[in-house]
Amino acid sequence: MAGMMKTLLVVMVVAMPGLELTRAECTVDPSVKAESKLEQEKLLQTLSPIIGQRSGEVQDKHDNTYEFAVCSDLPNLPGVSLAQTGKTPVPLGYNNQTLVSSDKHWLMLTFLGGPASQAGCNGSHWQGHVVFICDHDQDKIEMKVLDDPNFTLKFSAMFVVRHRSICSLSQKGLSGGAIFFILLLVSFSLYFTFGFLYLRLVRGAKGVEQIPNRNFWFRVGNLLADGCETVFRCDRYCGAGERPSSSYSGYSPIDEQLAQDLQDGDRDSALLSP
């Protein structure tokens, strides 16, 4: 029994380093300030569900092939997540020199520490950029090379990966404006419902008398009617028509308007009588 336990312990000690290499997570570059480092480490947690997944080899228009493993080591390349593959693999950056940036719908990993550029531009080194974009329908790592025909990305290689895990960065829930209008609608509904029940059950109101504060709401309706008249019938009330603008006294209820029309009709009849 003791021999079996010793053998099992040896197997675990040997196996665990290999497991650690395949699941090695990305580490923010040491040059990053402490405050920014904490923010970037939180963003890296977004990739936790897909750590270890590989894209397989992808090819650009120049027949160069690349491979990417999400914050884990590529075969025979310890500490490297992104590399140009081939007979002689070229790492484009290392896991322990990672920068993270994001927005609502994307997250970008920048791997530093790539080989020095052969152009000799002040000792510049290659960098690898992998942009994760939110895609609710994508659950596999499928990487595409971002072509750069104008060579705006000097000593950099950029790739795009669409995956649903990044969608967690998107803003969840309702916006502030939507919440405000919902609260406003609920408040008005409660106001009219309880006001209607109170006037009907307690005061015995009937018909339009059941509307709470009906005089106020009637005035609001009259004011809205006046505004519509002024805006959409300006030819009548802005001096362009036969009726002068000063003669318009605003909206009035139908019964008052009818009485006024009858009074004007009687006056006209008196003027025409012999």
TrEMBL record:
<feature type="signal peptide">
    <location>
        <begin position="1"/>
        <end position="24"/>
    </location>
</feature>
<protein>
    <recommendedName>
        <fullName>Cation-dependent mannose-6-phosphate receptor</fullName>
    </recommendedName>
</protein>
<dbReference type="GO" id="GO:0005802">
    <property type="term" value="C:trans-Golgi network"/>
</dbReference>
<dbReference type="GO" id="GO:0006622">
    <property type="term" value="P:protein targeting to lysosome"/>
</dbReference>
<feature type="transmembrane region" description="Helical">
    <location>
        <begin position="174"/>
        <end position="199"/>
    </location>
</feature>
<keyword id="KW-0472">Membrane</keyword>
<keyword id="KW-0732">Signal</keyword>
<keyword id="KW-1133">Transmembrane helix</keyword>
<keyword id="KW-0812">Transmembrane</keyword>
<dbReference type="InterPro" id="IPR028927">
    <property type="entry name" value="Man-6-P_rcpt"/>
</dbReference>
<dbReference type="Pfam" id="PF02157">
    <property type="entry name" value="Man-6-P_recep"/>
</dbReference>
<dbReference type="InterPro" id="IPR009011">
    <property type="entry name" value="Man6P_isomerase_rcpt-bd_dom_sf"/>
</dbReference>
<keyword id="KW-0325">Glycoprotein</keyword>
